[in-house]
Structure formats: structure tokens, C-alpha cells
Amino acid sequence: MGNSDIECEMEDGLKEMRKFYEEFKIKNESSQEVRDFLANAFQDEALLSRFLRGRKFRTQYAWDTLRRYAETRFDTYPDIFTDDIPKSVVHMRENLSMGFLKQRDKEGRRIAYFKTTEWDADKATLKDVTAASVRIFERLLHDEDGINNGIVFIQECSGMTLKHATHYTLPAMLRIINLYWYAYPVKLKAVYFVNFPYILTFLYRIVKPFLPKKLKERLLLTPPSRKFEDLHKQISPDKLPKCLGGHLELEEAADLAFLDG
């Protein structure tokens, strides 16, 4: 598709999204905060275009995602989108327990990661961890690379115990799905849980019926006995930090410039 075709598709998509928004205004639904956010959003053509591109110019899908983002942020999970990171997980941001890597996977997609060894389940809830990770994910709203190509996510689970498992209630897991799958115009192209402990497999069985079909297809759970073998079939260890079975120091592998940009 040439640039002129993309420009035409973008122009048509923006017009269609504005029609959806006008219908929304007439119905006078959602909270005042959501309506205010959407009113500002429709003055920001760059933001609208990112939602369109992220949803492959499917205008209904793009509008639904934008509206869901606003409702998630202001109505459903406002305690996740606070100004400050919960104190219980500040150290996890500071010591690079979560973030993005400089290298891409073999398809050229950004790699997000979370190593759980620094998560103290006695002091921090899964909601706290989610609140910290949301701030990282927000960077993708301004990232053409992530919007256009999607990302992959790796969670290294070797530090997880029964205490961690107690935080994975069904509402908590549904919150994660509602946030990262439905409320952002960024596609999760692959999700890897490595060194996934047996104690968490029963939790996966509980949430599995609620997972979107595409997410199930893109999800890889590997037990401690496999270590990083299956992950390395997808992403070379030359591109990964040692905490993910790779060859790099985490400080060298992590993309600090992207997070601070």
C-alpha cells in the first residue's frame, strides 16, 4: 500500500471515528472524566491516528479501543492510573525488574519483560505491580514502532511462590486482560511465561476460559524443567539479559532511553 493510499485510509478512518464519537455524545454515556478525555482526544489527530494504525484501520475497533481506554482509566481502574508509582514497587522500576529491551525479536518487535525475583509478595500486591507496569506501557501510546508492529512480553517466573499465587485472583487477572489486551492499540504478538511454576498452572486453568482466542494462541507457558529452552527458540540469547537466560547484563540490555523518553 502506497503513502497516498495510507493517507486516504487515514482520512476516511478519522471521519468514521468522529461519527462514532458524535453518536457517543448524543447518548451522553460514561462519566464526565471520560467525556472530557474523549473531547480532548478528538482534538488530537496524532493520537487518533495511532489508535487507527494500531487497530489496522478498522474504525469500529479503533473507536471501541479508544473509548475502552478512557473508561478503563477514569471509571473502571482509576486506582491503577495514579500519578505516583506505589512505594512498594518503586524499587522494581529502579532496579530494572520491568521494562523494555534494546533488541527486537526475529520479527523486529519490541520486547517487554518482567522478572519476578524482586517482587516481595508480602509488601506489594499484584495491583501495585500492575500500576507500575502501566506507566511503562503508556510509553507505547507515543511509539510508532510499538503501534505499527506490536510487542512481545516475557515474564520470568522463577521467584514466584504460593504467596505470589494468592494475588492472582480472577478479578486481578481479568484486570490485566482488560488493560493490556482491550484498552491499548498495541498488539501483544507473543506472551512468554518462562520457568512457570506448577503452583500457578491451576490459576491458568481458571482464567483460560476468559482469554481471547488470539491471546491463547500467542501464549507460551514453559515449566522450570525447560528453563529458557523454548524462549530461546523464539528469541536468540544474544539479544537477552542473563536474567532471561541470555548473554547480556541487564543494564546493557534494558532500553533506558525509551522509558525515559
Automatic annotation (TrEMBL):
Signal peptide: none
InterPro entries on file: CRAL-TRIO_dom, CRAL-TRIO_dom_sf, CRAL/TRIO_N_dom_sf
Pfam families, per the entry: CRAL_TRIO (PF00650)
Lineage: Eukaryota, Metazoa, Ecdysozoa, Arthropoda, Hexapoda
CDD domains: SEC14
Protein name: CRAL-TRIO domain-containing protein
Domain named CRAL-TRIO: residues: 88-252
